[in-house]
Amino acid sequence: MTASQTDDRVVQLVKSWHAQFLQLQSLTKAHIVMCINDEDINIPPLLSLHTLSSEQAEYCLKYLPIVINKKSLTCDNNLLLDESIKFTHFEILDKPKNAINHDFAILATNDNSESNLALFNLLVNQFKTDLSKTLTNKNHKSSNITISDLMNSFEEIFWIKDTQGRYIYANQSAEKAWHKSNHEVIGKTDHQLYDHEVADLFIDGDSQAIQAGRSVIVAECEDFDLSSNKAWLETLKSPIYHKGELAGVLGFTRDIAKHKAAEEQLMLAACVFENAVEGVLVTDKYGVIRDVNQAFTQITGYELSEVLGKKPSVLSSGRHSKAFFSKMWNTLLVNGKWHGEIWNRRKNGTVFPQTITLSAVYDEDNCVKFFVGVFADISLLKQTEEKLKNLAYVDPLTGLPNRMRFVSYLEQEISHAFRGKKQLAILCIDIDLFKHINESLGHLAGDEIIVELSKRLSYALSEFDVLARLGSDEFVVLLPSITGTESVFSSISHLRRVFERPFIIDNTQPIRLTASIGISLYPNDGLDADALLRNVDAAMHKAKAQGRNGYAFYTEGMTAEAAEQLKLQSALHQAIINNDFYLVYQPKIHLASGQINGFEALIRWYDPKLGQISPADFIPLAEKIGLINDIGLWVLQAACTQGVNWLTQGLQFSRISVNVASLQLQKSDFVDKVRDILLTTGLPAKHLDIEVTESCMMTNQVAVIKDLKQLSAMGISISIDDFGTGYSSLTYLKKLPLDTLKIDQSFVKNIPFDSNNSAIAKAVIALGHALNLQVIAEGVETQQQADFLLQNNCDLAQGYLYSKPKLAEEVNEFLLPIRPT
Q1: pLDDT tens track for 38-53
Q2: Which stretches make up the EAL domain (predicted)?
Q3: Which element (helix H / strand E) includes 772?
Q4: pTM (two decimals)
Q5: How far is CA 548 from the centre of its chain?
Q6: What's residue 386's pLDDT?
Q7: CATH of domain 424-557
């Protein structure tokens, strides 16, 4: 047969039933074209498919459409490819445009498994056998459709060579890709069409297919399509045999760019999967583990082989209820995602906390196909949180409960007493003239006395009583379920005996002490913890006023101090009217460079009659009587005005810090007030720092967080003041838009000599830096403190070591002129 005759060759269909098969392979599909004749059909087994499993064949043939004489044939369990496989569903597919009297069926599958490829090899061999017959039978009866029609109906490139390597056919896609017409190609060899190197490459591919005796992939290369788009081409070749003799070579080229891109995405995903620091596990829709990454193994101790096919419950710690998991799964199935904390168990039996995000993966029908869990071990974070929590609730010097822990105990006992209609007693113990001991013997000697006194007081109380340290020389005792004043007198007697023996300092110097004790009773002297503590403090001061070394019960007749409070309250109202307040500024020092970083604005009050009044006296009163908001806005206005004055004078500074009370943050218009002050004064927001205390999170956390985020969005810096002394939950801390943590001066005191304070300072610095926050220590008074803070990477410091708070005109010496740009 000559090359020019090839286009006229047709596929003859035998009288009863015959089909020719042509293998086509693309990215995810393989197509088989079957020509079906118009005559009566007697359906025998089509082909023995022992190489294809029943499950695979069912999937493939589910989409096999059959058209006969333009009428559909629906087969239900009666079309057999072999005796063991049945196929239950067939659908009609439109025939190709070039089909004249014959109809076609196309089988499509996404299964590129080895067994499925084996099926297609059988099919293509059947086609090649019949094609060889057609090519060699010149007198064969013609059909109305040609080989050219068949091959030109596909976008892939097809060509056929004879045994001499001459092209005897190329479809239209080949003509377009090669930029050569059939006339230029047919009858020629590769050496006649291409340069020597390329021709040898093509001929070598023919040889590979012939030597293999089957379809093989002979080339894969990067190229560009007709639209200059980047493409990856894959070429397959297969020998054609007739009666056992080689008749030629069939070639086929397809674009696998999408396949390559998918491979790259899979490689990238696999790389991320294996190298992620978070543990990842993948389950099927039934929750059975299908894969885990290396981090999963490192965190849990389980290898993939140990959990494959099992459910995540293999990690269960037993700490969570069924209701917990039921709610988790409900959220996951409804929303497609769940995030939270779970305690799980490692292979070695240890229980650990983790944060985990569970996500559902859906298929094209929007049905769940997989679940993916990404988790991180937060053991260290929990340990740090617990450590800070303990430090926040425990007095670091004595190990006794501090004020916050004591208030918690007191509130619980008040609740019990209310239900049981019982009485409670609160005792406040304050060492008389303890200040003189600190001044004469030093703070270390004073601390030694405090530690010894805490031990003695603990021994003097029963196991049901609660002892706490509220301040430097002030202790408080809770006596639950008292039976009357007699039991209170008994406890007081035991406590006073503690002071009968002298305290020995440095194992040599005996010190004798006395104490004043105040007593308040529930429910007579207050119905809540705040009232009881306030009144017991008043009673203690009454005992001191009566000559010390005694005790006093709170009574409503304690009017002297109340009268002083009333006088101060009246003066405070007048001070707001007369504008008697003024600001002083304490510099913040950058520890590494020693440069000024900014200032904290501090309010002061001088009354013409009462003299200089400490903020410690009038700020709590202002909060109590509802004046703190007015005073706070005055401070903010005055500080911003002074900042603008410095900038106008050409003096540079980073920020002015202003303290904001929690009651101010609870005002719904607070953010608007701050914005108005910045607009009216003209101070850029970047020069303002707002300091809030941890107690601001005690009420209405959602609103507070929202307001702080709005302030931060304006460019204002946000700092937490006195960190560690208030509501120090890391859960809320991480939600705040913070820039700075301030270590309270009570923790800076006596470092580096006080191991507990040193540990707290280190922990706060580490926590701040872990959260990408600046850390500033306040109350720095000695060079040893500054050196310790610098060595532990604290960023900033303020305190008397550098400067006392000064008037605005006195701090100009700290400010440098702005350099012209």
Answers
A1: 333 332 333 322 233 4
A2: 565-819
A3: none
A4: 0.39
A5: 58
A6: 78
A7: 3.30.70.270
